[in-house]
């Protein structure tokens, strides 16, 4: 059963309640921290992008096409189509040798409000590369050209690139492949649902690749997570939680639509996955800050950045404090043998 994670008060009265689940696993693979149901089956959505990028890096598609580190990093990102994102994406199109028509993700305007407003003022059309998943799609198309896979249907579950992605996720999450539920994401890609504890395990391994026995996957994970930290702006964008967390070189983090958020801590050797059941993303920073505080995380600057994104004080358009946001959960500590 889910538990209350965040309460919002306006004028002293409770206005909103956000419930969900949290799971934290140790390097042994055992559940160390829990709120709600750690077995809750959760769609990864875009939190799965680091795993979807592993076959691309494993088979050297980034090197084959001479992609820069920033261009490679945006394959893992949910970008906002800010100017620096678009520059990288246009360069990738040219280097890989594909047109936007090859992308299954639908043309749209940028998720960045300033970028979208600029496009509208200039009367520029929607484009597929403005879609926040376009970097991922370009990465898989690069993989197809590298491996000789068909470009057509690269997004279908039975495509060899997609089969390798599922196998990779099963391996890192320790979730049996036959238990991974496959749906379709908003961008047209397969999307996977697994129990929250397996998702936390996968992010533990992103943070602690030394436990990955497959050397090719381990090497790909090390490169991917290094890029996420070094080029955090490509993973999300200005004033976004992923980029703010990834400024901390001790953290590997990625969120997805409908309330799922995940991160791994390198020094502490912990992996966390959480799900806000109403699908809201606004609570991610305050929930993450509370988790870090409760485990005694040492980097206060990282915690402070979370509270800057979601302040405990609710401020209206006139910059007046009119209520409060409060994380109200307590991590249940599991005693490990």
TrEMBL record:
Pfam families for this protein: Asparaginase_II
Protein name as it appears in the record: Asparaginase
